[in-house]
Amino acid sequence: MDRIIQILVNAAALYVAVILVPNLEFTGEWWKLLLVAAIFGAVNTFLRPILRIFTLPITIMTLGLFLLVINALMLLLTATISSELNLGFTVGDFFAALLGSIVISLVGMALSMVIGSGRMAGRVL
């Protein structure tokens, strides 16, 4: 059940990012957005921890700001996979991915705190 809630939270956060960030676009039906959210969740689940380990020295030197770049890269990868599957999610450039990842993180965190999903329920910020 937590996985379904997380996909819905990701879908809502992606939708808000598409509305707010220029060059971040989604065209298609609502179920395609759910597929994009599932892909985004899978990319973040499997690749993000590996990238965080490999980029640990850079992350320490930038006091954690490099994590924003990793989040933007995860969004770009999601857009690439989405375009290959014709799901209608596109990211125009790296700056749009950076702003989009910030919006997605903030909206996702807020929704997870409101809903009380297991991902954020016990986490201290």
N/C terminus separation:
24 Å
Strand content: under 5%
**Uncertain stretches of 5 or more adjacent residues:** 120-125
Q: Characterize the overall form.
A: globular
The oligomeric status of these chains comes to single chain
Radius of gyration: 14 Å
Mean pLDDT: 90
The biggest beta sheet, please?
2 strands, antiparallel
Bin the helical content: over 70%
Number of helices: 7
Write the layout of secondary structure elements.
Elements: H1 2-20, E1 24-26, H2 30-46, H3 48-54, H4 56-61, H5 66-84, E2 89-91, H6 94-115, H7 118-121
Antiparallel strand pairs: 1-2
Helix pairs in contact: 1-2, 1-6, 2-5, 5-6
Explain this structure to me?
This protein has helices at 2-20, 30-46, 48-54, 56-61, 66-84, 94-115, 118-121; strands spanning 24-26, 89-91. It is mainly alpha-helical and 125 residues long. The chain has one domain. A two-stranded antiparallel ribbon has the order 1-2. Helix 1 crosses helix 2. The longest helix has 22 residues, at 94-115. The model is unreliable at 120-125 (pLDDT under 50).
Write a brief caption for the model:
The chain has 7 helices and 2 strands. It is mainly α.
Defining traits:
125 residues, mainly alpha, 2 strands, globular, disordered C terminus
